Each structure stands twice: as C-alpha cells, then as structure tokens.
C-alpha cells in the first residue's frame, strides 16, 4: 500500500469495528492520522481503539447508529472536540438483508437497508460537510458497491440504496468543489469481510459463482479498499471529485 503523511489530520470512519472500516481505520492511523472509530458495536469499536492507542496512535471510539441523525451529529462534534478538526471521512457503515423476490420484499426490509446504507451516508456527509465547510478543506469518501453501478439479482433495496450513494456523492461533489471539499465514492466488489463470511455460511452468497464472475478470480481484501480510500483522501487525488471508483477485480468491466 502506498504511504501518505496525514500527520496533524483527523479522520472519521463509520462501520469501523470490522471489515473494510477497520482496515481503513488502521491504514489512516498507520499514516499518521488521528482516527474517530464510529460503530454501533461498542465492544468491537472500543477494542480497535485500544489496539491503535497501544500502538501509539490517537484513536477515539464512538458508539453511533448512523440511522439516527442526532447520533451522527454528536459523533462528528465529539471528533472535532477531541481532535480540533475533521479532514477525512470514510462513510462505510452498511448492512445486507437476505435476497428476496422483489414482489415479496417487505417494507421493513427496505426501510432497514435504506436507513443505514443511504440515509446513514446522507447524515454522515451532512454533518461532516458542516465542519469541512468551516475549515475550507476536506475529503469525503462514501462506500457504495458494485451494486451501485449494476443491478443485483434479488437485492433490489440494497441496489437502490447503493445507487443512491453514487447519486448523493456526485451531487454533493458538484456543490462543494468550489469550497475546497472533495467527495468521492468507492464501489467495492465482493470483499473478504465478516459480512461476506456470514452471507456465505447462510447460503445467501454463492462464492463459486461470484469468483467465476470476477475477472481476477478472487475476493478483494479490506486493505485493498483502504488503499483506494486513502488515495482518494490524499493530495495525490487532489483533482478527483465526484468519482465512483470500482474496486471489484474487474467485475463491473465485464
């Protein structure tokens, strides 16, 4: 992974307790950033904060359900109170529900997906922007999915929410480009995460079919997503905003 100098900068990561969020939080810290770890799983997020602190990094554990806007606002405010600023954000918190026929999908399943995967990203972006607007600088990376670029069989609500993240990103990027704030999204393919492990074990994901449809013939890693996020947050991507970057082993190129 490329290295960056994020010394003196503060990062905010949602869904930070495991998977892509934890990998990205570790990468931010390893490159000198103070990191706010935001997750609704208190035990796991506090464990990661302790790990990073023991390694000599600045880390703040914040328990937050991103579907609650006030909790998001409080988490952003706590980050700024602790670190004095907010320079980078990875809005990664997300869930998956079992696949369903679109004609049989429940409103409850749709609302569960939308409240976290889309509304949670919107709330995070909104409150991050308020601080970054005041600073006149910042970089936000939202987490969409390959499902934000193509259709997903049996996953209409998830796909709709992830497409929404791409649209949200592009719209906000247009508005904030003149204000010194860049906003992009990563679109991961199937990544080695606890969520994918659970889906595979439950029979909700056909791993062989997924690998067959992926030109690179393997799953991605959390570290590979982290590498893309850090690049988008760095000065190396200073002329990049409004992008939806696939990190999917070639899946959406097929």
Structural class: alpha/beta
Task: Give me the strand/helix succession.
Answer: EHEHEHEHHEHEHHHE
Look at the structure and give the CATH class.
Answer: Alpha Beta
Question: Helical content, roughly?
Answer: 40-55%
Termini gap? 26 Å
Number of helices: 9
Contiguous runs where pLDDT drops below 50 for at least 5 residues: none
Strand order of the largest sheet: 3-2-1-4-5-6-7
- Write down the domain tally: 1
**CATH homologous group name:** NAD(P)-binding Rossmann-like Domain
Taking the sheet with the most strands, its summary is: 7 strands, parallel
Strand tally: 7
CATH fold field value: Rossmann fold
Q: What would the principal axes of the Cα set say about the shape? A: globular
Pfam families: adh_short_C2 (PF13561)
Family: Belongs to the short-chain dehydrogenases/reductases (SDR) family.
InterPro entries: KR_dom, NAD(P)-bd_dom_sf, Sc_DH/Rdtase_CS, SDR_fam
Keywords: NAD, Oxidoreductase
Please describe what this structure looks like.
Pfam families: adh_short_C2. Its EC number is 1.1.1.47. It is an enzyme of class 1 (oxidoreductase). By secondary structure, the chain is of the alpha/beta class. The chain has one domain (10-191, 223-244): Rossmann fold (3-Layer(aba) Sandwich), CATH 3.40.50.720. The chain is 45% helix and 15% strand. It has a 7-stranded parallel β-sheet with strand order 3-2-1-4-5-6-7, sandwiched between helices. Helix 2 (42-54) links the parallel strand 2 and strand 3 (59-63). Helix 3 (69-83) packs parallel to helix 5. It is globular, with a radius of gyration of 17 Å. It starts with 9 loop residues before the first strand and ends in a 7-residue tail after the last strand. The mean pLDDT is 97.
């Amino acid at each position: 992974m490329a290295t960056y100098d994020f010394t003196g900068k503060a990062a905010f990561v949602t869904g930070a307790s495991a998977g892509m969020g934890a990998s990205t939080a570790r990468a931010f810290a390893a490159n000198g950033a103070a990191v706010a770890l935001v997750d609704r799983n208190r035990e796991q997020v506090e464990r990661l904060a302790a790990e990073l602190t023991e390694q000599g990094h600045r880390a703040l554990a914040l328990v937050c359900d991103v579907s609650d806007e006030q909790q998001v606002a409080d988490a952003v405010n706590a980050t700024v109170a602790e670190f004095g600023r907010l320079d980078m954000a990875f809005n990664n918190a997300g869930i998956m529900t079992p696949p369903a026929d679109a004609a049989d999908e429940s409103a409850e399943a749709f609302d569960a997906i939308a409240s976290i995967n889309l509304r949670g990203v919107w709330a995070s972006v909104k409150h991050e922007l308020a601080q970054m607007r005041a600073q006149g600088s910042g970089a936000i990376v939202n987490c969409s999915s390959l499902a934000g670029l193509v259709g997903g069989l049996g996953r209409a609500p998830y796909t709709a929410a992830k497409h929404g993240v791409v649209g949200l990103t592009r719209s906000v990027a247009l508005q904030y480009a003149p204000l010194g704030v860049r906003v992009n999204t990563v679109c991961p393919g199937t990544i080695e995460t606890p969520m994918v492990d659970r889906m595979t074990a439950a029979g909700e994901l056909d791993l062989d079919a997924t690998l067959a449809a992926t030109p690179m013939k393997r799953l991605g890693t959390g570290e590979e997503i982290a590498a893309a996020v850090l690049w988008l947050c760095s000065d190396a991507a200073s002329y990049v905003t409004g992008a939806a970057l696939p990190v999917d082993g070639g899946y959406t190129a097929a």
